[in-house]
Structures are given as structure tokens and as C-alpha cells.
Design brief:
By secondary structure, this protein is of the alpha+beta class. It is 19% helix and 41% strand. The chain has one domain.
């Protein structure tokens, strides 16, 4: 896959998402297969997903760095997926998920590196009454 195809896939995933209020993403092509995505997706309840991905799509989806940080309308963290190697005891190291507000003791759990469409579906489930 070429990086432009991945960018189109991201756009399609976002377009299929319910409860969208606004999207502000910058997509930079670094080579035919490498790209950088950064920005935010806002939802109708004023919650926000901050997105950052540095990806290589030549042989599948390899994210060198990523962060999907979801905050409620009060700017309190709901969850964050990332690959920062600061929890070596997690079986999915360096991939993990932070759960709950940053003011609480950090609850970290094992996690794969979910693609953006799975993160958006998780947010939809949170927002669906």
C-alpha cells in the first residue's frame, strides 16, 4: 500500500464515524510508504481525540510512534493508546493503554496497537446512550 492510500483509508474511517463535530488532521507524506499524521477529532459532546501516528505502510501497518489520546469535554483523559516504552512489565510492551484521568493513579493495561478505526468505534460505544 502507498501512504496516500493509507491517508484515504483514514479519511474513510473518520467519515463513517458517528457523533463527529469536526476534524483537524495534518497528513504529511515523508516517502512513498512513510507518513506522519497529527491533529484532533472533535465529537458532538465536545470530547476530543488527539491523534499522532508516524507510519510505514510498505508491508502492512507499522507505526513507529503513535498516540490516540481521548479526553472528555472537561479535558480529563478517558484513555490513551501509545507505544512509549515506559512499562516494561506489560506483556504487550511497548504497546499499552492508559485508562482514566491523569490525576488518578495511572491504570495501565496490555493492549495491541489498535488502528484508528477501532479507536473511533470504542469512542462511539462510549458516546452511544
Amino acid at each position: 500500500m502507498l501512504i496516500e492510500e493509507y491517508f484515504l483509508r483514514l479519511d474513510a474511517w473518520i467519515a463513517q464515524t458517528h457523533y463527529l463535530a469536526g476534524v483537524s488532521l495534518i497528513k504529511e507524506k515523508r516517502s512513498s510508504y512513510i507518513g506522519f499524521i497529527k491533529g484532533a477529532i472533535e465529537f458532538t459532546d465536545r470530547s476530543t481525540l488527539s491523534v499522532m501516528e508516524f507510519v510505514d505502510v510498505e508491508r502492512g501497518l507499522d507505526r513507529y510512534k503513535y498516540r490516540h489520546h481521548y479526553e472528555d469535554q472537561n479535558k480529563q483523559r478517558v484513555f490513551r493508546y501509545d507505544r512509549t516504552p515506559h512499562f516494561p512489565f506489560i506483556l504487550t510492551h511497548p504497546h499499552h493503554k492508559h485508562i482514566g484521568p491523569e490525576t488518578d493513579p495511572d491504570l495501565v493495561t496490555e493492549s495491541s496497537a489498535p488502528p484508528l478505526n477501532e479507536v473511533l468505534k470504542e469512542i462511539e460505544r462510549i458516546l452511544t446512550p
